[in-house]
Design brief:
2 copies of one chain form a homodimer. The first copy, chain A, is α/β, with parallel strands linked by helices and 436 residues long. Chain A has one domain: Amidase signature (AS) enzymes (Alpha-Beta Complex). Helix content of chain A is 37%, strand content 14%. The first copy, chain A, starts with 9 loop residues before the first helix and ends in a 10-residue tail after the last helix.
């Protein structure tokens, strides 16, 4: 194999490092070379710490394997604290802000031998106002958001993995738009210590990779579990649920057809494909999510609202904040109670299927860089706290990537990823490599 | 009334400020005078920001009322971020650490007109290793922990309110030991943005005051709700449940008798008193809490464990951290699932009673300053996410304070506080004033 190291997945690079045919330093140089060649076009990085990364890699070169990510470069969304790099949260409010410690997720990746290459671009406080990042597949198109830089950096093969966060659809949508694998774990599974709080009821650390196998390697490092290879489940035993819900009406017909064609392709190979009719109240989940996320965000950023108001975008202040301040405690409590009921209902549904399958975004990445797209296909699953994967399954009408969303049962993340690997193979979806 | 201003509750001081008979500056001077007189004995403060507080008060003197806490001094546990004061988390690891922003709870109190007097002593990372604080009622006794300084500062009338946090029993126990009102809201009700994360499944911002009325004033400010007076519920309609559980065996006989005597006193005045038998699995809650809290804490402090190990106490590393690292993801998920079942069970129980009543601590404050006491009476209620109040109801055999614990239904905090006010009046418990 004469792959450029930066094009390798974590698993591939790790094998070479273990075999002695690749050093952490050579890998980081390859990643830095790709970054140098493509950053002016993609603009994925808020801060690229070349020298620190080189030094960290050099220390690992002669060492015994320290963990499952020995010498693996990674990127970090810039709302996640780092002790040795600024953390600016995508807003001039935090220009030059230097945290005292690494967030738990960063420290866990480093403890497993990972090498932090830098901080990736986020939208303003992980909300609507876009950062500078462009879609690596078409620079006039959005990469999606809010984890824009992380998705783009992995798609452009600048790093094999980058962390993002999802409060609505901020990992899965950019994964779909940028044509990489994206994963949001079950709510609560990965520590948020040191991650900027948007809506405590939903905020989840997620990540982007170029294979399903890599998602699992990183997941085990982030939950602090021993490394263990992913065992794909036999397709013949797999029970699939196709779920549409209210979001389906927002999905472009071309994307609907892609998802349905994938289901048709899988049907003869799996145990069953069942059309899932979401129960009463399912379609109101998006509104509950909006009420709760607004309520929590408006309170969480009280310091910013009262002390740095002039530096916040009108979209942030007049949109989510105003909504959130209008929402009363009783409305908030009612919305929370309604979601609790829906979580019980979906757990019932998930007794009959191993995974749910649906669109991950309404279509290809939007043209223009003024907005990052619509999370309509992600909101319910985030609100229900379920793990979800975006698999780069399709190419849309303009030739841009379109993902397929796989959703698992609560805290059934290992099972979801094993099933996703089998589905990937069945659909003939490859490891992602950069096109240029 | 010729009360020294520092002895006043929030409600009393607010009335005088509104009437023009007290200024924010005069109030802060009175609090600073008490602090000056008693701090060498009590050691409540990690950092007392006299000049900043004076300046903030002076700005409020000529102003219209900006909110429900206009000119009210408050203290902040030193694991809660402040933009204008260091935040050291009770450990040399964070010596001199200066956050970029105020935590949401601090910003909300300031937005309501509150004046931050300083940061109060916490145990090491809000865990076991004690800080320098002493019990204001007996300096050779622990004030309880981990919110030691906040409880002591309110008990000594240095401030009328101080914020703490509770992951196990870190607000209610020190409230009992120091003879003040302590309150832990329903889990999730107060934003934890900017609060050091110990165990995300349990961490809750709580506070200490010298009246029930004051708890509600602060609660409304912290959930961002408009001010509204507390309406006590008629005792005659109140259904009380006396609950013991496994913790009761750890409660000293003298304390058991105090709690039972309070129940006897209330019996003729209320609608009903029912002995609650917790269902199957209730007594295992403490073990589930230990598994989950250890699992989450060990991961949350990965940076501290891997980069500042030599500055952490052996108790922290060998105790909670080692336990937490030994707990597997599957054990963790099982414990979470078991707690979810118990939350449903307690919600059923709470359909028949308006509040539960039990001991808040096994007895009076422990002698000695090497440990902060036993949270055995608090763990289950924290794990179940229920709101709880400690009312300074009793005096123990050595003359030290002993609290009575009142527990409400999930997100029934307003109802709990209204009931607590009625119970307080019925038991003839007064507003707390300092004894010296």
């Amino acid at each position: 194999m004469s792959l450029e190291p930066a094009q390798m997945t974590i698993a591939e690079a790790s094998r070479e490092i273990e075999a002695g045919t690749l050093t952490p330093s050579a890998l980081i140089e390859s990643c830095l070379a790709r970054t140098g060649a493509h950053e002016s076009r993609v603009r994925a990085w808020a801060c690229c710490a070349d020298d620190q990364a080189r030094m960290a890699a050099r220390l690992l070169d002669p060492q015994e394997r320290v963990g499952s990510l020995h010498g693996i470069p990674f990127g970090i969304k810039d709302i996640i604290d780092t002790a040795d790099m600024p953390t600016e949260h995508g807003t001039p409010v935090f220009q030059g802000n230097q945290p005292a410690r690494d967030a738990a997720c960063v420290a866990l990746l480093k403890a497993a031998g990972g090498v932090c290459l830098g901080k990736t671009v986020t939208t303003e406080l992980a909300h609507f106002h876009p950062g500078k990042t462009r879609n690596p597949h078409a620079e006039t198109h959005t990469p999606g958001g809010s984890s824009s830089g992380s998705a783009a950096a992995v798609a452009a093969c600048m790093v094999p993995v980058a962390l993002g966060t999802q409060t609505t659809g901020s990992v899965l949508r950019p994964a779909s738009y940028c044509g990489v694998y994206g994963y949001k774990p079950s709510f609560g599974d990965v520590s948020r210590s040191g991650v900027f709080e948007c809506a405590a009821s939903f905020d989840t650390v997620g990540w982007f990779t170029r294979s399903v196998e890599d998602i699992e390697i990183v997941r085990r490092a982030l939950i602090g579990a021993p490394a263990q290879p992913l065992t794909p489940v036999p397709l013949a035993g797999l029970r699939i649920g196709l779920i549409r819900g209210a979001a389906w009406a927002e999905v472009e017909p071309a994307t609907q057809r892609l998802v349905e064609s994938a289901v048709d392709q899988l049907r003869p190979m799996v145990a069953s494909v069942k059309e899932i009719q979401p129960g009463a109240g399912f379609d109101a989940i998006a509104q509950h999510h909006r009420d709760i996320a607004g309520y929590e965000f408006a309170r969480a950023i009280t310091w910013e609202r009262t002390n740095r108001r002039h530096l916040l975008s009108p979209k942030l202040l007049d949109g989510r904040c105003e909504d959130g301040l209008r929402c009363s405690y009783d409305q908030y409590a009612e919305a929370q109670q309604a979601l609790a009921v829906q979580r019980t209902a979906i757990a019932q549904i998930m007794q009959d299927v191993d995974l749910l399958l649906t669109a991950v975004a309404p279509g290809e990445a939007w043209e223009g860089l003024a907005a990052t797209g619509d999370p309509v296909c992600n909101t319910a699953w985030t609100a229900l706290h379920l793990p979800a994967v975006s698999v780069p399954a399709f190419s849309g009408e303009s030739g841009l990537p379109v993902g397929l969303q796989l959703i698992g049962g609560f805290r059934q993340d290992a099972q979801l990823l094993a099933a996703a690997e089998s589905v990937r193979v069945a659909l003939g979806i490859d490891t992602v490599r950069a096109q240029s």
